Amino acid sequence: MSSVVTDIREALAALAVPGKALDYQKFFKTGIGEYSEGDVFLGISVPDQRAVAKAFYLNISLDEISLLLSSDYHEHRLTALLMMVNRFRKAKSQAEKNEIVDLYLSHLQYVNNWDLADSSSYTILGCYAYEYDRADLLRSLALSDPMWHKRIAVVATLYHIKKHSFELTKELVSNNLEHPHDLMHKANGWMLREMGKKAPDDLIRYLNRHYQDMPRTCLRYAIEKLDEPLRQKYLKGQI
User: Fold this and answer.
1) CB under 8 Å to 238, separation ≥6 — which residues?
2) What is the pLDDT at residue 2?
3) Region of residue 216 (phi > 0: left; psi between -120 and 50: alpha; otherwise: beta)
4) Tell me, what's the pLDDT at 185?
5) What domains sit in the chain, N to C, each tagged with a CATH number?
């Protein structure tokens, strides 16, 4: 075992609160038949994980990060992803970014909960897809079967939204608008809401075309920031 990986595991273990581990396992739905069945937690807060990631990310190789990213422990995986985000932001060349993206894509099976996806997808894959015209990566994930891949793809477009580019978000949301899982409904509605903050007219046009076909959760998320009378019209189907 790499010494730096051992140091990170020990640093995280020192921050673990066993009582929180049980709470997290309930919150993240790890029971039989739930969306995160079998995931295990140490009981470490996200701010503490961010602090550990910040302390170590400059002194760890991508191969060593992969050891943490493939861990059974949720907090090991999230800390690994946070280190990858930090490394990606500091990368000076496309070659460096390519290596981080390759590691991310080759370990997608470990980005298997909404917090893991949401904390890493737009800052790594979204940024990469936007900067290097690689929307094909996100389209491929959005069309693949695993629900987590679809959520990663949709949330990754948050980077595009921040750059006032909305077409890819609308495309990927539309591709999965009828997905059966509530976590996709929330992700789709969230991205539409974020688009609406930047471009209200784009959101209204999209809603007017699709709102009657949206799952209720998606619609509620999407219209959350609209004026109340307009919200009620969408909720009541009066548009």
Assistant:
1) 232
2) 80
3) alpha
4) 98
5) 1-91 (1.25.10.90)
